[in-house]
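To the structural biology subgroup,

Please find below the input and predicted structure for Stage II sporulation protein M, which we are adding to the shared reference set this quarter. The sequence is reproduced verbatim from the submission form. If anyone notices a discrepancy with their own records, reply to this email rather than editing the shared folder directly, so we keep one authoritative version.
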Amino acid sequence: MREGQFIKRNLDRWRSYQEPTDDPDEIARHFTYLVDDLSYAKTFYPKSNTIRYINSMAANIYLSIYKNKKEKSNRFVTFWTTELPLAVRRNHRILLYAFLFFLSFILIGVFSAYLDQTFVRAVLGDSYVDMTEQNIANGHPFNVYAGENEFVMFLYIAFNNIRVAFLTYFFGITAGLGTVYLLFKNGLMVGVFEYMFFHHNLGFRSVLVIFVHGTLELSSIVIAGAGGLMLGNAMLFPKTYTRMQSLKAAAKDSVKIMISLIPIFIVAAFFEGFVTRHTDMPVWLSLAILILSASFITWYYVIYPIKVSKRNAQTV
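Predicted structure (tokenized):
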């Protein structure tokens, strides 16, 4: 590559690095990319002023890191209160896309089951549908949640949900196609599953029972899907970075987001193993758990990241 082309390709990015930021991950990324650019320039343009320009920017970032470096004993706290919300905020658009994908797939499941009753069996399987219809006929439509030991069910559900979420995330490496497929598969099942109860006039009751744990569980699948789409987006649209640089940056943010889902899945599994089985609990209690769960997800993954981002911008 000619030096002029190299400069033209990277100049806008270099200039963006001169804008102040208080995000340690962003600063680290800038420094890493500048070191890569400096190495490239030294190799192909050893006597160029470009080397001095890049080296000057890298030196300034290096000094800013170590001049203000403080050993933080509360890194665990800052991860949850600052680092993670900023990572979420940088990817709010992708999170919205994941939500819209999942919601669309749920509606496809509902509409398909409405048009063709056999579609329910095709998706959920004959044995599961027969068992559910037998439970409905016996007056215990949600007896499937009370069939196992609470603790065993809790462990199995937690493991399975974490496995599904991380598969949804890791398949983002297929340029996002694998992630979209798993969102489609899970969304379709949710839509068909809910239609089955609405078809038997148990829709409202199913929401009160199933979404005691389902609010956190399904929200986490959407967020895991966003993590996978982040990887796919980085591969397809690296912008001014190389694909590897773009993928590394997306991986750092998405891994943080995936870590945040583990405690949420554990709480969801606790609800499903120990709480959902009590299908005769008061309506107000079911609604309280459902609303609190939805409020937490909305606040922590939508509202709070915006507030942290604005506060961070004001302090720069």
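Summary notes: The chain is about 80% helix and 0% strand. Residues 3-70 form one domain.

Regards,
Lab coordination
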